[in-house]
Design goal:
- With 356 residues, this protein is an alpha/beta fold.
- Helix content is 39%, strand content 22%.
- The chain is built from 11 helices and 12 strands.
- The chain has helices spanning 15-31, 47-53, 61-65, 83-97, 162-178, 196-208, 221-230, 242-255, 296-308, 312-326, 342-354; strands at 2-11, 36-42, 70-75, 102-108, 126-132, 136-145, 153-159, 183-188, 215-220, 237-240, 263-267, 275-279.
- Strands 2-1-3-12-11-4-5-10-8-9 form a 10-stranded mixed beta sheet, sandwiched between helices.
- Helix 9 packs antiparallel against helix 10 (312-326).
- The protein is globular and about 55 Å long.
- The two termini are 20 Å apart.
- 47% of the residues are buried.
- The structure holds nicotinamide-adenine-dinucleotide and manganese (II) ion.
- Residues 5-349 form the Isopropylmalate dehydrogenase-like domain.
- Its cofactor is Mg(2+); Mn(2+).
């Protein structure tokens, strides 16, 4: 039987609650005659590891992950450690080390979920946001000088390369082409950012020629936020820079009902390295350690993980089980206005996988 090696990195906060829940659901799926098995390895990296060792993960940590088939990640972020230390020391180290340059973020309104847009039905909102995940505003280029003096200066330089923009555009056009509507919106800000974003637009136009069957348009990022709210059905696949897509995808998650539901994949499309799947939410300091976290974002991320492994049928079965569970308001966690706990939602998904 085929065995997939999955690295689990719960990280911090509610990551420690939702990643084990995700593992439980994947185990149940494999045990219910899926035709494959999993070999899980857990890594206790994150804030606790930082307190013990002075870093978020070991220097040779990537070596331990390299031969895994995929990574299931929770969250990096600890109330007692600066956010840029936790983020750069763990999540970005993996994303950048493994050149996971395409960050894919699907958004749908799942059955039973009350989304805030009153004129929007589930069929009006079915998006995938493709986020450039390797450079741009989060390239890490910049610095500080004269620290603490009145003349202090600090820069974060957005850096875009032709190769980097070409590969994310090609990925986004290909993804749009694979979806029924074959429609892509290229998000830009080339009116105000007159160098890199102009190159971004030029490359979008050039790459579009390779995909004559994909309808595409361009939208400025600020106008795009309004369009997401006012005309959600006019959007399908979107591609945006690292920063723009970071913001748009939190908006997308909220419009679909909750940050606790939204999944993401950090993908190396060339499959040189393992790809990494995670809920888009963070450590949720306000509810951590209480068993209140919504695990649905992690479960949906597990669906993306299965799709990436080529296990389409198992992925569809898990998604079906998730949607049956969200359809029942008694199984909603606090973020959705319900009273269910992480363990209740997990048990409900597991039991639906068993009874099939
Ligand atoms: P957050 O996503 O942790 O929380 C925002 C709000 O949403 C909180 O009220 C939280 O309770 C709620 N929420 C989020 N996920 C939920 C879930 N699954 N179920 C129920 N409620 C949920 O964002 P934040 O407060 O901006 O960040 C907290 C920490 O997490 C920071 O250290 C930040 O850097 C980190 N963070 C990490 C990642 C990541 O590793 N991918 C992403 C975002 C934030
Ligand atoms: Mn974010």
């Amino acid at each position: 039987m085929k065995t997939y090696k999955i690295a689990c990195i719960p990280g911090d906060g509610i990551g420690k609650e939702v990643v084990p829940a995700g593992q439980e659901v994947l185990e149940a799926l494999a045990a219910s005659g899926a035709g494959f098995r999993f070999e899980f390895t857990s890594f206790g990296w994150g804030g606790d590891w930082y307190r013990a060792h002075g870093k978020m993960m070991p220097d040779d940590g990537l070596e331990a992950l390299r031969d895994q088939d995929a990574i299931l990640f929770g969250s990096a972020g600890d109330p007692h450690i600066p956010d840029h230390v936790t983020l750069w020391g763990l999540r970005l180290k993996i994303c950048q080390g493994f050149d996971q340059y395409a960050n894919v973020r699907p958004t749908r309104i799942l059955p039973g979920i009350d989304a805030p847009l009153k004129r929007c039905t589930p069929k009006d909102l079915d998006w995938v946001i493709v986020r450039e995940n390797s450079e741009g505003e989060y390239a890490g280029v910049g610095g500080r000088a004269h620290q603490g003096h009145p003349i202090e200066v600090a820069t974060d330089v957005s850096m875009m390369t032709r190769a980097g923009v070409e590969r994310i555009m090609r990925f986004a056009f290909k993804l749009a082409q694979s979806r029924p509507r074959k429609q892509l919106t290229v998000v830009t800000k080339s009116n105000a950012q007159r160098h890199a974003m102009v190159m971004w637009d030029e490359i979008a136009l050039a790459v579009s020629k390779e995909f004559p069957d994909v309808k595409w348009d361009k939208e400025l990022v600020d106008a795009c936020t309004a369009r997401m709210v006012n005309r959600p059905a006019s959007l399908d696949t979107l591609v945006a820079t690292n920063l723009h897509a970071d913001i748009l995808s939190d908006l997308a998650a909220a419009l679909a009902g909750s940050l606790g539901i939204a999944p993401t994949g950090n993908i190396d499309p060339e499959r040189r390295y393992p790809s990494m799947f995670e809920p888009i939410h963070g450590s949720a300091f306000d509810i951590m350690g209480k068993g209140l976290a919504n695990p649905v974002g992690t479960f949906w991320s597990c669906v993306m993980l299965l799709e990436h492994l080529g296990e389409k049928e198992a992925a569809a079965r898990l998604m079906q089980a998730i949607e049956e569970v969200t359809a029942d308001p008694k199984l909603h966690t606090g973020d959705l206005g319900g009273k269910a706990k992480t363990a209740d939602v997990t048990a409900a998904v597991v039991s639906r996988l068993k009874n099939r």
